[in-house]
Each structure stands twice: as structure tokens, then as C-alpha cells.
């Protein structure tokens, strides 16, 4: 994995958890708006919107660089529209990055899978 691909995956991983948190907070704000006089939906909606757009941009860049199959790309996109999906995306991306580092070290040391 080259440095640009690793950077694209890292950016996607770093925005996925905050996007998920903002989605959950937006849901809470929506419920509070309908049950109380508290209305933070416009502010939280804007914050979540920016984070969602960043997630989609970083997802498209990662898909382009990693050459994921359509199913893998679709899973990562679907995780962005689920309230807690960003947490699962972050975990999967972290695991993928760790596996890539292990594989690169093995190649560097000349270890080959038997």
C-alpha cells in the first residue's frame, strides 16, 4: 500500500467516528425539539452535514485509491447512513490499516506465506 492510499484510508477512518457521534447527537436534538423547547437541530444539522460530506468525499477517494470491490465500497457507504455505522467503519478501517502495515513489514523482511 502506497502512502497516498494509506492517507486516504486514515482520513476516512478519522472522520467516521465523529460523523457517527454527530448523527447520534442530531437524533437526540430532533427528539428534544419535538418534546421540549430546546432546538439545536439547525446547528447540529449543519455540523453533521459537514461531517457527512467529508465522509463521502473521503470514502470516494479511498474507493478510488484502494480499488475496493463494489460490495466493500457499498458497505462503507451504507455504514455512513446508519446511526452507529461510523463506529463500525472506523473499526474495520483500523483493522485494514494494521493488516497492511503487517503485510508491508513481512514483504520488507522477505517473509512469504507458505
UniProtKB/TrEMBL annotation:
<feature type="transmembrane region" description="Helical">
    <location>
        <begin position="39"/>
        <end position="58"/>
    </location>
</feature>
<dbReference type="Pfam" id="PF12823">
    <property type="entry name" value="DUF3817"/>
</dbReference>
<dbReference type="InterPro" id="IPR023845">
    <property type="entry name" value="DUF3817_TM"/>
</dbReference>
<dbReference type="GO" id="GO:0005886">
    <property type="term" value="C:plasma membrane"/>
</dbReference>
<keyword id="KW-0472">Membrane</keyword>
<keyword id="KW-1003">Cell membrane</keyword>
<keyword id="KW-0812">Transmembrane</keyword>
<protein>
    <submittedName>
        <fullName>Membrane protein</fullName>
    </submittedName>
</protein>
<keyword id="KW-1133">Transmembrane helix</keyword>
<feature type="domain" description="DUF3817">
    <location>
        <begin position="9"/>
        <end position="95"/>
    </location>
</feature>
<feature type="transmembrane region" description="Helical">
    <location>
        <begin position="70"/>
        <end position="89"/>
    </location>
</feature>
